[in-house]
Amino acid sequence: MSQEYVLETRALTKEFRGFTAVDSVSLQVTEGHIHALIGPNGAGKTTVFNLLTKYLPPTRGEIFYRGKSITMMKSNEIARLGLVRSFQISAVFPHMSVLENVRVALQRPMGNSFHFWKHEKVLNQLNDRAMALLESVGLEAFADTTTVELPYGRKRALELATTLAMEPTVMLLDEPTQGMGHEDVDRVVELIRQAAKGRTVLMVEHNLGVVSKLCDRITVLARGAVLAEGDYQTVSQNPKVREAYMGSEDTETQGAH
Predict the structure, then answer these.
(1) Same domain, 189 and 240
(2) Are residues 184 and 177 in contact, defined by beta-carbon separation less than 8 angstroms?
(3) What is the pTM of this model?
């Protein structure tokens, strides 16, 4: 096994009562890369994410982090290693302020995991770091805004800030631009590019325009199995990939511009 792979799977398989959702997927994510997992609906992308982050146990196969098997680890142990996931649905606290959301996330690496009963003065010590994170995702002006009042694209930026607060080595982003307009997509693409500096990113993404701008390597899934792999140019010209998308590839690429 090559040590350059920060995250690797070997013949990863998940079956549900005879239905194979993930079929012998071998994935190699290189340290420092932005790696996309793409494919048509039902291809098994999110199931792979659930296996990697231990929300589901695999039926067969192995998962490695920096060359060490993590197949039997629990989800909280995975997070402590530095594999931190953002979800397809926004996972922030809607009735807390933007600053408070980041401040809560910052408590985790400090070992004060979600101590809501901590004195306000103790929590205020985290404000400088929280504001720096908000500035990094363009939300410093929204620090005192109640999160539920944020537009959708800004909510996803906040989610990215809370993910960064967990000090990830590998960021697993599930559909980070889903449901966004062009302006928000462009903003989030740039935020991911900035957040990826010094980190590894594995992302599930439908928008091929986003993938073409961001990703070093792409793995295409279809019916739970790896269909193709390579850089964007290689993958986008693969006839099997075009067939799997049944014409949606061109539509989604145009939709990103």
Answers:
(1) yes
(2) yes
(3) 0.86
